[in-house]
Design a protein that fits this description.
alpha/beta, D-Amino Acid Oxidase, Chain A, domain 2, eight-stranded mixed sheet, globular
Length: about 425
């Protein structure tokens, strides 16, 4: 059977793959997206939908000590399930090696440049393509109940200011005036007015609509079964829906990248970081501003169409169970900060795997040893936030233009 051909084949129909496809179509390329399930069925679906240039790198000073304290606590914000896993152990050791002040500041500068550019591009994309995804220039609040933790957070706020992220520091009274949904236990917060929010499942659905409207093809239920390669060039991608070929192939498979990449000899240091969320109907007193409840690391987002508690980070491989202990921790954490922590009805309980690199930077650019394979993966917790800039950079690269940002910090050759 002859392979179905297009200029570019995009592997993965999540937020990154669809954004790449849309920008490539805008650049005049024909595009086919291959998705093993349905578009947006992975971590694109159930996250909290915040667009956050304010998000600092995960490998930070003190993270290792904090993580060790949490090891035996199954509802901790960070949990590593005890087991023998050499790849995870190697990943954790490299992660720990980056938990120092110099790497933290260097990564913050590199990552924030990417996030700020994507924030501007994403809003423009929503406007240009008329994406109906409840986008709002809401800002975000990072909220504290512990005075010592709030005092220590001032250094991080100062670092963000030095890299161009606006931060407004509020005391407890000012926070409650700004966000009446919070209770009286709050001692302070940092407000990031440049952040935003959207409803992620609707954003992904709208990206898919825009891709199809622009002439792109999305093949769902097209699980990858293999590849044919000749002289360092990917010739075909074999799937359960047939064979596909393209002059260029974009690898945007998120948390599944290590497994599929192994078929091509790619060693991608990505671990699946499992996150959870609970979606409710809106409580009567829902927060106006999306927020992170810092001591418990719970994210809270309200839209006109619903209300969600999310976050946590669990390294348990590709375990496909809903961990009731960790789900319940979301509501317990929210109850410490909010007057009405949950909505009247549970609409969905969800988990998804985020593609985590140990330096908390995405992998963008040409794959080693292949002439026509480009990587767009490893976005960690920030796939939605980084979707627009990733799409632009990949389209620039594959169109023969000089990328508008230096892509060297994100190259696969850094590992």
């Amino acid at each position: 059977m002859n392979a179905k051909r297009s200029d570019v084949v995009v592997l993965g129909g999540g937020v990154i793959g669809l954004a790449c496809a849309l920008y490539l179509l805008r650049a005049g390329r024909s595009v086919t997206v291959l998705e093993g399930k349905t578009v947006g069925s992975g971590s694109s679906h159930g996250n909290c939908g915040t667009i956050t240039p304010s998000h600092l790198p995960l490998p930070a000073p003190g993270t290792v000590i904090k993580g060790l304290k949490w090891m035996l606590k199954r509802d901790a914000p960070l949990y590593v399930r005890p087991r023998f896993d050499p790849a995870l152990l190697a990943w954790l050791l490299r992660f720990a090696g980056r938990c120092n002040a110099r790497d933290f500041e260097d990564t913050t500068r590199v990552k924030t440049e990417l996030l700020l550019r994507s924030r501007a591009l994403l809003e423009q994309l929503v406007q240009d393509e008329q994406l109906q995804c409840e986008f709002d220039r809401s800002g975000t609040l990072y909220v504290y109940r512990d005075a010592q933790a709030f005092a220590q957070s001032q250094a991080e706020a100062a670092l963000l200011r030095t890299v161009g992220v606006e931060v407004e520091t509020l005391d407890g009274i000012a926070v409650q005036a700004r966000e009446p949904a919070l209770n009286t236990s709050i001692v302070g917060a940092h407000f990031h007015p440049g952040d935003a929010r959207l409803r992620p499942n609707r954003y992904v659905a709208e990206l898919a609509r825009a891709v199809r409207l622009a002439g792109g093809v999305i093949e769902e239920q097209a699980r990858i079964e293999g590849f044919t390669v000749d002289a360092g060039t990917l010739q075909t991608v074999q799937t359960t829906r047939g064979s596909f070929s393209g002059a260029e192939v974009v690898f945007a498979l998120g948390a599944w990248s290590p497994q599929v990449g192994a078929q091509l000899g790619l060693k991608l240091p990505i671990q699946p970081g499992k996150g959870y969320s609970i979606t409710y109907s809106r409580p009567a007193l829902a927060p106006v501003i999306p927020m992170v409840l810092k001591e418990c690391n719970v994210c809270v987002t309200a839209w006109g169409s619903g209300y969600r508690l999310g976050s946590t980070m669990e390294f348990s491989g590709y375990d496909s169970t809903l961990n009731r202990t960790r789900l319940d921790a979301l509501a317990r954490g929210a109850a410490e900060y909010l007057q009405q922590p949950v909505g009247p009805e549970v609409e969905e309980e969800w988990y998804g795997w985020r593609p985590m690199t140990y330096d908390d930077l995405p992998i963008l650019g040409r794959a080693p040893a292949y002439r026509n394979l480009t990587l767009a993966t490893g976005h960690g917790m920030l796939g939605v936030s980084l979707s627009a800039v990733t799409g632009l950079l990949i389209s620039e690269l594959l169109s023969g233009r000089t990328p508008s940002l230096d892509m060297a910090p994100y190259a696969a050759t850094r590992f």
